[in-house]
Design a protein that fits this description.
about 110 residues, 7 strands, mainly beta, globular
Length: about 110
Amino acid sequence: MNFYIFVNSRSYDFNDKVVGSPTISSYRLLNKIYPIYDGTRLQSFLKPNDKFIFYLAGKLKSKTNMFVAHGEIEDIVVNDFYSEDDLHISSPIGKVIKLKSIVKVKI
């Protein structure tokens, strides 16, 4: 079993407004999915039942730079259905990690 930190960073929407990492993280946890982009290193090591921690990156220390959830990976699949374009401008998503047993950390 391996352990991974899934970093959630800010991005921009189509109106060039900042979408903060807490918003992106909440969206991903709600959908029980974490995207893997084509250039992601070590993606071949991910496997079901590995553990993860969700981390919020960012400059606003009162809302970021913290762990917000942890859990277990359910599956890793080639992406043909998931997009985050309605939330922020996203690079092409090659695979998605389906999440299970998510435990949110109280902040």
